């Protein structure tokens, strides 16, 4: 029942997003058709790639929705195995990790909000540019949230991989120390404890590796279009600034003088 409810919510969300995307494309078509000042290659290309990134993000999320469930299931399995190995310290380490990750997300959101506010301040007096910003902001927000989700999953994996590395180093140091001290290791309990810990680390590593493959399959196309969008924006805007500077047309860069 929970899976059906989640699938229904995701389907509704995707349908709403596709309808919004169609509305944005329609208004963009009307705006670029009737306004010769805005209907240049630079604006049309950047607007089109923003909508394309939005569309790819929605479709990919809809297709790979089952992968997200698998990612969190594997994370729960890994946490249980790690908790068995280091039950005293793991909860504290996990709390520190989530605090650090939450701070990173807040910094990202705050920086993005400051950037968008600065854009609004610069184009607030121009109705056409405000309309372009309003048409683009939803699509940009969706692609940024997708990028943020990918970053969160990578951080979750990296944190647990570091713990696996630390535990492997501890085993190596322990065996070297036993060799130096000539400690008898012929007892069955010694080998059983060592074997069980190595087996747990192996299960953790294999689960994390499978999870990393799932993550790579889940974000490939959306991140590719996101990267393409940023590249086109940067290239087109820098070329446009160079063109205005070459023509000594500074009002398009710095705004109109009062």
Structure description:
With 258 residues, the protein is an all-alpha fold. Helix content is 89%, strand content 0%. It has seven helices and no strands. It has helices at 2-34, 41-63, 65-85, 90-123, 127-181, 188-246, 251-254. The chain is elongated and about 80 Å long. Residues 181-185 have low confidence and may be disordered.
Please summarize what this structure is:
By secondary structure, the chain is mostly helical. The chain contains 7 helices and no strands.
Annotate the secondary structure layout.
Blueprint (H helix, E strand, L loop, with lengths): L1 H33 L6 H23 L1 H21 L4 H34 L3 H55 L6 H59 L4 H4 L4
Roughly how many Å is the radius of gyration?
26 Å
Averaged pLDDT: 82
Query: Termini distance?
Result: 62 Å
H/E order of the elements?
A: HHHHHHH
Features:
258 residues; mainly alpha
